[in-house]
Amino acid sequence: MDVSRPYGVLSHPLDGAVLHVLTGTTGGLSGRRVAELTGNAQEGVRKALRRLAGTGIVEEREAGNAILYSFNRRHLAAPAVEQLTDLRRALLTRLTEALAGWTSAPAHASLFGSAARGDGDTSSDIDLFVVRPAVVEADDPGWREQIERLPGEIHDWTGNHANIVEVSEHALGDLRRRRPPVTDSLEADAVTLLGPEVTAFLESGD
Known about the structure:
By secondary structure, this protein is of the alpha+beta class. About 45% of the residues lie in helices and about 20% in strands.
């Protein structure tokens, strides 16, 4: 570790991708396997691994003719690195806690789209599907305040804009019949945050 530049542990964008893979396993991985899991070129990943090994955050060990790499959880920077590489899970937790704390909780809420798949970037929206309980009117002041406050909170947490698809429980039958494009994305990607799984709302029948 460079004590004059401790932040240098993450000095290159590819370092984050490599560390994301290594923090997800307790065993050693070859450079080839790390490259496969990150979806990046093997030579670039090898350079990143050597760079990270130089800081001590990644450990190297020989295994026959191969070199295996692992995340050094004893490193001073390890807790910070693990937090940074697991921000998607932190986002899911933050969203779930916020929605569960609403005065009128949604009948269902899920994350979908690129944020749910884990392939979004700084320009991607955070897409949420929220089902308003049947007993809550669309213009209920408390409900509207919650819905309208959420995009600002999400932007504060992530820097990304939010796209909220709000549907009443009364309108779910029509949603199933019409099957707008959002239903395909929900069925393919949705991560349930609150309430029953999204398939319980989208399965056929009223």
